[in-house]
Amino acid sequence: MLIGWPELSARCERAGIPLRGGFHPVAEDGVPAAGARAAATLVLLGNAGPSMWRVFSAARAAAPGLALDDWTAAVVSALAAELGAAALFPFTGPPYWPFQRWAQRAEPVYPSPLGILIHPRFGLWHGYRAALVFAERLSLPPRDDAPSPCASCADRPCLSACPVSAFSPGSYDVAACVRHLDAGPGAACRTGGCQSRRACPVGQEHVYPEEQRRFHMRAFRRATPPAAG
Known about the structure:
Blueprint: H1 5-15, E1 19-23, E2 41-48, H2 51-62, H3 68-83, E3 86-88, H4 99-106, E4 110-111, E5 117-118, E6 126-134, H5 157-160, E7 167-168, E8 171-172, H6 174-182, H7 187-192, H8 195-199, H9 210-223
Antiparallel strand pairs: 1-2, 2-6, 3-6, 4-5, 7-8
InterPro entries: 4Fe4S_Fe-S-bd
Domain 4Fe-4S ferredoxin-type: 140-172
Protein name: 4Fe-4S ferredoxin-type domain-containing protein
């Protein structure tokens, strides 16, 4: 089925997982086929600010222990079935799809000094949870090519805010970060989220609520091996 961008956006919003952007793939993008037909359009879904978290939190209240990945897979797979699209996720694999590269094709996001993508409006408070691949060539809105806010940020407070100096240009000392999180002084990061991420002045009105920041920090810690030493 051929669907217009406004209706697609509205459906994703109602499902609780906002539409982030899209592009028409070329061979170099590595987008798989949509069923038996070549991919003609890929759109990304995810979060920007706390809107997705509110919907997921309500679902988790009704089903305690519900995992974010499981919720995402259920919601987006249902959308894909309704729309005649194929659903892809960054948390399944192999193969692991290049969501960061696709994001840079879909909207104006750029690598930040912390290594995660920064958005000119949402800052570091956004993410990508899924993609829908269509065999049809959907009409996409004009791309906003706003520049990276990091290019005009002279102070770079994100690099100096970390209490253990885990970040430097082009480098992230994961072991130092994990040791700090596991120690008593790491409570501020465990409960309030990464201090370097919070120090970025861009998108402060879209900062995740504390509950969401704690959730993501716990998930990061579970996924990261214990630090040696």
